[in-house]
Specification:
Layout: E1 9-13, H1 16-26, E2 30-37, E3 42-49, E4 53-59, E5 78-82, H2 85-94, E6 103-104, E7 111-116, E8 122-127
Parallel strand pairs: 1-4, 5-8
Antiparallel strand pairs: 2-3, 3-4, 6-7, 7-8
InterPro entries: Fosfomycin_Res_Enzymes, Glyas_Bleomycin-R_OHBP_Dase, Glyas_Fos-R_dOase_dom, VOC_core, YwkD-like_dom
Keywords: Metal-binding
Protein name: VOC family protein
């Protein structure tokens, strides 16, 4: 199998309107398409991240809880690349989003930090 990159990352949220506001209004991702699927009583919101990347935000009635510890087996976290970490942190904090202290990657020497979405999913911002 030869891949050319990621097509999208899919996220299931517990409160669609709250998560939509977070990803669109706070993180600044643009809406590609919003679809309500009547047969599933579910929204699917396609969001543009950067120039080519995409997140699919889903809502389902009563989704089961998932372990969100970054050290649990499975997807650890989702990292977004930014050119100015300090500005990104200030933007998140201006919207009341708690952000961990900035760290330095001991391997690359790059700065990064973590925050959480409305469902406590661990998200990272990594300075390019």
């Amino acid at each position: 199998m030869k891949t050319t990159g990621f097509h999208h990352v899919a996220i299931i949220c517990s409160d669609y309107q709250k998560s939509k506001k977070f990803y669109v209004d706070i993180l600044g991702f643009s809406v590609i398409q919003e679809t309500f699927r009547t047969d599933r009583n579910s929204y699917k919101l396609d969001l543009r991240v950067g120039d080519t990347d995409q997140i699919e935000l889903f809502s389902f009635p009563n989704p089961p809880q998932r372990t969100n510890s970054p050290e649990a087996c499975g997807l650890r976290h989702l990292a977004f690349q930014v050119s100015n970490l300090d500005a990104a942190v200030a933007n998140l904090q201006s919207h009341g989003v708690p952000v961990e202290n900035i760290r330095v990657d001991e391997i690359t020497g790059k700065r990064f930090t973590f925050f959480k979405d409305p469902d406590d999913l661990p998200l990272e911002i990594y300075e390019k």
